[in-house]
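Help!! Second protein's tokens look totally different from the first
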Amino acid sequence: MLKNAAKQSKELLKVDLTGYKATLDPKMTAVVHFTKSGSPALIGSYNSKGQFYELKFKEYGE
């Protein structure tokens, strides 16, 4: 998941995912949380092929 999102995050959000941890959301299907201490958190939604169709900054408190 991290590899698939890395290119899009760099192009769309100007965020390099190097060092980020990818965690599947326990409550929502096909959603991944990307976190790294001291860096903005991201949320991504992906399709059955593992391609991300949505990648955004995680809102505070979300």
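Here's the second one for comparison:
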Amino acid sequence: MATSPKKETPDSGVVQEQPTPAAARHGDHDRIVMASRRADGSMDQVNPEFIGDKDTAIAAAKEQLAVQAVSAVDVAARGVSAGEGEDGAGSSAPDAEIKALKEAHEKAKDAAEAQAEREVERLHQGLGE
């Protein structure tokens, strides 16, 4: 087997001691089973490719995005509190603000799960074998 001698000039481009962000964007990519997420819910990988069992990847992405979306609703609604009834005792009737918050949770969760499924469907590449 023939080999080429390593070029020792710094501008040869053959060996890259320290990868640059540009190199990562244009060549390499991340093979993932579950994404890392930024605060806005977007994936924090370089050109991600889902591998492994597709149903598992979808379930993980749905759970991850749903929890993050529901948490975002809670953060936006901070300050909501349940008060006491007129007689000083707690009320057994559902609090309107809590009901609205639960509905917002469900809406955010459904949207997040749909986003998760779209991402995995678009980026899944099989079992990685």
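Reply: Different proteins will give different token patterns, so don't panic. The mean pLDDT is 76.
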